[in-house]
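task queued by scheduler; priority normal; single chain, no ligands, no partner chains; default sampling; output format set to C-alpha cells
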Amino acid sequence: MMRDFSAGNYRFIPSVFQYSAGAAADDGYEIERVRFDRVVPLAEGFALAAKFIQEAGRPLTAFCACELRSPAAFSEEGFRAFNLHYVKTLSEWGIFDGTTNPVARSNVCPEIDPPSEPSFYAFSFTRPTRSKAPSFVISGGAEAREGSGTYVERTVRYRDLSPEGLREKVRFTTTSQMENRMAAFGFGWNDTTAVQAYSVHDFHHTLVDELVRRGALRSGLTWHFARPPVVDLEYEMDCRRVMREAVI
C-alpha cells in the first residue's frame, strides 16, 4: 500500500488525487508540524510554509501534510473544484505529478467564526534528525467508505444522527480509516502523540467504547467544533506521531 516519495524523504499511502491517506518520515528524518496562531488564506499559507521550510534548509518537496479550514461544507462538485485549485501549488513545488499526491491532509469547516475563504491551520514537513523515533501524519478521514460511487452511496448511516447512527460513524472512522491507515505503516494507537476529532454533534456517548478502550486517547483528544468538508458527512478524525511542533 505504501509508496516512496524520495524527493521529500517520506513514504505515503496512495489515495485520491487531492491527498494521500498518510505520510511517514524516512529513516534519518522526522516530521515537524507548524501551526499558525491564526488561520491564514490559502495562498498566504503556502507562501509562509515555503518560507519556513526553506529557512529550515529544506526543499519544498519536504512538505508532507497540511490542515486546512474552509468557510462551509462543499457539494461534491464544489469539493472537486477546490481540490483542482489546491493541487496547482503542489504541482509547482514538484510534489503532485498530475495523478499521485503524497501529501496528507485534513480540511474541515468551523461551525462558528469560519474563515471567509479556504485557509491554512497547520502544515508539516520533513527534516533530518538523529532520533530513531518514527513520525507520521494520518490524513483526516470521515464516515465515507473508500471506492467509487457518490458520497451518498458510500456514507455510513447516511443522514442518521441518532445516538446509534453517530456511534457507527465514529466506530467506522476509528477502525476502517485511522487504524487501517496506521497499520499500513506498521503503527497503532500506542504510537500516536495526538488525535483530533471534528464534529458539531455530541459524540460523548461513543468515547469510552469506540475510542478510550481502543487506546485512541492515550494522549487525550482535541475536539474541533467543525464539520467535515462535504455536505452530510458528520464526523472526522486525524492522528499523528510528531515530536517537534511549533506555533507561528
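post-processing summary
- The CA atoms of residues 20 and 104 lie 5 Å apart.
- The chain has a mean pLDDT of 96.
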